[in-house]
Structure formats: C-alpha cells, structure tokens
C-alpha cells in the first residue's frame, strides 16, 4: 500500500463521531418516494432521477427550499423512525460510533405533525441503534431562525415533557437576515434549563453573527464557522474559549460556500489552532456521508496524517459525551494511528 492509500484506509476505518447532522437532511430520494407513497402524499417530482437532478444549489436558500419540501412527506412516528434508522445503519458502515443529530420540530409542527410523533420516532431509532449497533447518541432540538422567537418559545414549551430525551438546542435555517441576537431570550431560557447550546454561524453570515453566537447566545459549539476566519480577534476568541467548530466540507462545496475542496478552510482552521471537525450536514442532498467527506479531504486536499488524527480526536473531544467515553474513543484512535507509520 502506498502512504496515500494507507492514509485513506485509516480515514475510512477510524472511529468517528458526527456532530453536525440534520436528520431531515438524510432523506434519500428512494426513501422519500416510498414514504410519500405509503402516506398518499404527492411530491413535486415524478421520478427519483428528476428529484436528484434538482439538487443543484447556488446558495443555502436554494437547498432549504427543497429540504422543506422533502420533509413534508414525514407524517407518522414510523416515518421518523425509518428515516433515523436508515441514517444510523448507513453511517455504522462508515465506522461512525457516536452521533449528535439535529431535528427541526418547527418544520413538522407547521404541517400538523405533533412534537410527540417526531421525537418518539427519532428517539426510538436512536435507542434501537444503541442496543443493536452499539452506537451512542445525543439529540439536539434546533430552532428555525427564519421564524420568530415566539415560535421558538412555543416549540420549547412543547419540548418540556421530553427534556430527558433532548441533549441540547441548536439554531439553523436561513442565516442571512436572521442573526443569533433575534433568539437571545429563548436561548437564555434553554441555558437556564441546563441545555448545552450550539448555533449555525458563519456559514453564509458575517463574522458579526459568530460574535453574537458567542456573546449573546453563549454557545458551547459553533456549527460551520467558516467566515470567522475573516476576523483575527474572533479566531483568537474561539481559540481561547476552546470551542469546537462542526465543519461540513461537502456541504460547503454543494452550497457554493467554497469553490473547490482545495480552497476549503478546514486545514487553515487547524493551523490556527481551532478545534475543527468533519461532518456531513445533509448527506442525502450534498453527495456524501461521513466517509465521503473524509475521502474527499484525503484525495482532494493535501491533508496530512497529523491533521487527520487531529480531526478524528477533535470530534470526540468536542462531543457532549462524558469524559470517560471520550477517553476510550481517543485511546482507540491513537492505537490505530500508532499501528500505521
Ligand atoms: N447547512 C444548513 N445550514 C442552515 N440550516 C440548515 N438546515 C439544514 N441544513 C442546514
Ligand atoms: Zn447544518
């Protein structure tokens, strides 16, 4: 095996944690058509191929328009279970051993699907995968930032009976024009409830939005964070706080956040001492799950063995797992890298 083949092999086989994944973004066209038929719901597209051909995005909003259309066929608890289980089985093959997944309750409540239906389906699959595949998980409820703060508060109220199943809160959807400060009060309440908090920031939005995620929301993690690199004081602050960035290389490529993977800032982030991690975001729409993202980085950038090792460790260190579990995974990664010169 050449050294580049050995690096790729290691990237594929190493244990992984995925920290930035929207469960509704794992909806593969084949499964979407099957569930649409089961629920007697019409889709805008007649064929799987037609739908796949529509996956050409110029920006985040282009994608979100299709993403909300796609999820509209999810109606019953079984649908949420099947969606989640398909994702878990798929990434188990990529040696993902721990997942921290988002769901967008408001994207379903607006269609009359109860909070209970959604969370029972998703949580049921996570528990079954824990038992049958040995995977661990955290579930993150995400607020849609294009809606108002009152709607986020209503969602939080619906979530209250299920707080034992909810491990954290996020902020996603259309970033431009919807800065984190719009949600200052609801995140204050989430924090008072003891929930860890993360927010999409700096995917398309300016550094100012990342500052707000830090200073107004008080995030424990940052989703994306690409545009933070435009502000050296911001980089220094993120580094000082030791915050993890959940970076999504293939997503950034598909949504035109970067022109090529060679231009992707993930290696610069590592060089700056930021805790970057690799994630798939919405793999069914962006052409790749976890190993596809790592495959692209290894084959299309000059990523080194040390950088790969750091990325693997950062994911567990930045996870919301307990210290002992983190250490067990970190030891296993070190063991694997030590075996390959
Ligand atoms: N990449 C992304 N950015 C913002 N909101 C999202 N919802 C699903 N994927 C998203
Ligand atoms: Zn995302």
List keywords for this structure.
341 residues, alpha/beta, TIM Barrel, four-stranded parallel sheet, 52% helix, binds adenine, binds zinc ion, A_deaminase_dom, Adenine deaminase, metal-binding
The H-level CATH homologous superfamily, spelled out, is Metal-dependent hydrolases
Number of domains: 1
Based on CA atoms alone, the radius of gyration comes out at 19 Å
Largest sheet: 4 strands, parallel
In CATH, the architecture is Alpha-Beta Barrel
The ligands bound in this entry are: adenine, zinc ion
Poorly predicted parts:
none
User: What is the overall number of helices?
Assistant: 17
Query: Could you give the order of the helices and strands?
Result: HEHHHHEHHEHEHEHEHEHHEHHHH
Give the integer mean of the pLDDT values: 97
Relative strand content: 5-15%
Secondary-structure blueprint:
Blueprint lengths: L2 H11 L2 E7 L6 H10 L9 H6 L6 H12 L5 H16 L3 E8 L2 H4 L5 H19 L2 E9 L4 H11 L8 E5 L11 H9 L5 E4 L5 H11 L3 E4 L7 H10 L2 E4 L1 H6 L11 H6 L3 E4 L4 H4 L3 H11 L4 H13 L5 H17 L2
Parallel strand pairs: 1-2, 2-3, 3-4, 5-6, 6-7, 7-8
Zinc ion binds next to strand 1.
């Amino acid at each position: 095996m050449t050294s580049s083949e050995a690096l790729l092999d290691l990237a594929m086989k190493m244990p992984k944690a995925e920290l930035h994944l929207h469960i509704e973004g794992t909806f593969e066209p084949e499964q979407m058509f099957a569930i649409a038929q089961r629920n007697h719901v019409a889709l805008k597209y007649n064929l799987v191929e037609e739908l796949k051909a529509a996956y050409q995005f110029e920006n985040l909003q282009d994608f979100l328009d299709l993403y909300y259309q796609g999820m509209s066929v999810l109606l019953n608890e079984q649908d949420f279970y099947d969606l989640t289980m398909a994702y878990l089985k798929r990434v188990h093959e990529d040696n993902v051993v721990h997942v921290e997944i988002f769901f967008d309750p408001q994207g379903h409540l607006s269609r009359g699907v109860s909070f209970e239906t959604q969370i029972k389906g998703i949580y049921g699959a996570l528990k079954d995968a824990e038992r049958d595949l040995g995977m661990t998980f955290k579930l993150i409820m995400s607020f849609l930032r294009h809606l108002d703060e009152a709607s986020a508060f209503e969602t939080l109220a619906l979530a209250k009976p299920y707080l034992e199943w909810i491990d954290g809160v996020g902020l996603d959807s259309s970033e431009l024009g919807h800065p984190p400060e719009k949600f200052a009060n609801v995140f204050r309440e989430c924090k008072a409830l003891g929930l860890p908090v993360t927010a999409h920031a700096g995917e398309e939005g300016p550094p100012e939005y990342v500052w707000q995620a830090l200073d107004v929301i008080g995030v424990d993690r940052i989703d994306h964070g690409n545009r933070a690199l435009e502000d050296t004081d911001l980089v220094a602050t993120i580094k000082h706080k030791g915050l993890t960035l959940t970076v999504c290389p293939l997503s950034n490529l598909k949504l035109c956040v970067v022109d090529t993977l060679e231009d992707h800032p993930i290696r610069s982030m590592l060089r700056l001492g930021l805790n970057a991690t690799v994630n798939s975001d919405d793999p069914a729409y962006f052409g790749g799950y976890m190993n596809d993202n790592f495959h692209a980085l290894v084959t299309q950038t000059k990523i080194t063995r040390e950088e790969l090792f750091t990325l693997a460790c950062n994911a567990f260190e930045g996870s919301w797992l307990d210290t002992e579990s983190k250490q067990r995974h970190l030891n296993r990664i070190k063991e694997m890298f030590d075996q390959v010169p």
